[in-house]
Design brief:
The longest helix has 27 residues, at 55-81. Residues 118-126 have low confidence and may be disordered. Helix content is 47%, strand content 25%. The protein has a five-stranded parallel beta sheet with strand order 3-2-1-4-5, sandwiched between helices. The chain is α/β, with parallel strands linked by helices. It has five helices and five strands, in the order βαβααβαβαβ.
C-alpha cells in the first residue's frame, strides 16, 4: 500500500505532467506527499572569479533557492486544495539524483514519482540522467516514471 510519496520537481514540463500522477495517486491511496526541489550550483568559472563567499554568488544562489521554494509552495497549495497532506518541503543544493534517493529513504517514502525528459523514437532508449540515476540507485523504493512526449 502506498502511504507516502516523494515528488521531486524542477518545474519542467516533465515534472508538471508527473505532478498530475502524484496528485491522482496520493488522493486514491490517501497518501501523504513530500515535495523536493534540488539545484546544482556549478558555475566554476564564476566561482573562481568572484569566490564562493561573494555577495554576487550568494544572490545567485538565493535566486535558485527562492525559485525552488516558490515552486514547492505552489505545489503544496494544489495538493492541500485536494485535501492531500504534505509532509515536508525540501529545497536542497546538490546533485539531484543522490538527493532524491537520500530524501526518499530518510523520509520513509513508499514511492517516488518523477518525470523523465521528453523522448523521441531514438531517445526513448535512454532516460534522462537524473531519472536513470534514481531508478538504478533506489534499491528499496519503487520509482514511477512519467514520460513527456515530444
Amino acid at each position: 500500500m502506498i502511504q507516502h510519496v516523494l515528488f521531486p520537481s524542477d518545474g519542467s514540463e516533465a515534472s508538471q505532467k508527473a505532478f498530475h500522477y502524484t496528485l491522482t495517486m496520493a488522493k486514491h491511496f490517501s497518501a501523504k506527499v513530500t515535495l523536493l526541489h534540488t539545484y546544482e550550483f556549478t558555475m566554476g568559472h564564476v566561482l573562481s572569479r568572484y569566490g564562493a563567499e561573494s555577495d554576487y554568488i550568494k544572490s545567485i544562489e538565493e535566486n535558485y533557492e527562492n525559485f525552488g521554494l516558490q515552486l514547492l509552495e505552489s505545489l503544496r497549495d494544489e495538493l492541500s486544495a485536494q485535501a492531500i497532506q504534505v509532509e515536508h518541503l525540501y529545497v536542497l543544493k546538490g546533485e539531484p539524483g543522490p538527493q532524491i534517493v537520500r530524501v526518499a529513504e530518510q523520509a520513509h517514502c513508499d514511492l517516488i514519482i518523477m518525470g523523465t525528459r521528453g523522448m523521441s523514437a531514438v531517445e526513448s532508449l535512454l532516460l534522462g540522467s537524473v531519472s536513470h540515476y534514481v531508478v538504478n540507485h533506489s534499491k528499496q523504493i519503487p520509482v514511477f516514471l512519467v514520460p513527456v512526449q515530444s
